[in-house]
Amino acid sequence: MFSGIWPAREDPFSARMNAASKLVASRTLTDTSAWANSRVLEGDLVDVVKGEERDVVVIGSLSVVHALMAAELVDEYRLLTFPTVLGAGRRLFPDDGPRAHLECVSAERSGAVVLARYRREAGEGA
Questions:
Q1: Distance between CA atoms of 34 and 26, rounded to whole angstroms?
Q2: Which of 29, 60, 73, 76 pairs as cysteine with 68 (C-beta 3.0–4.6 A)?
Q3: pTM beyond 0.85, yes or no
Q4: Are 72 and 125 within 8 A, CB to CB?
């Protein structure tokens, strides 16, 4: 889905996304040639992320986030909050999941959206 949208966009954010090196986690995708600088993640997700020397940013995959949370590999959450109430859906922090003690690092408004950054409190794993 992303590879059909981002490559044709030319705004500053899209330019950064298109230029960035990307790992694509997929159960079905084998070809990422539609989006420059991207490759399909091979092997175990957690092992690959542990082996990365750069920060890993997850966009649009709750299942990937949950797997990285379970492995205690998430140090910071950057949440974009849109003014739309759905009332249903999967949760970032499920009721049966571990407690997350977070510290708000920043919150800023950008149009109708709020970008909030939270880090795990000191002493919270990785």
A1: 15
A2: 73
A3: no
A4: yes
Q: What is the pLDDT of residue 95?
A: 85
Can you tell me the distance from the alpha carbon of 87 to that of 90, in angstroms, rounded to the nearest whole number?
10
Q: Which of 63, 64, 125 is nearest to 100 (CA)?
A: 125
For residue 125, pLDDT beyond 60: no
Spatial CA neighbour of 78 closest among 52, 60, 98, 90:
60
Instruction: Supply 73's token pair.
Output: 């590999």
- What are the residues whose beta carbons fall under 8 Å from the beta carbon of 90, sequence distance 6 or more? 62
Structure tokens at 120: 């795990």
Residue 46 contacts residue 87 (beta carbons within 8 Å): no
DSSP 79: E
C-alpha span between 57 and 122 (Å, rounded): 21
Q: Which two tokens stand for residue 89?
A: 């859906």
Query: pLDDT tens-digit profile of 44-81?
Result: 999 999 998 888 989 888 999 999 999 999 999 999 88
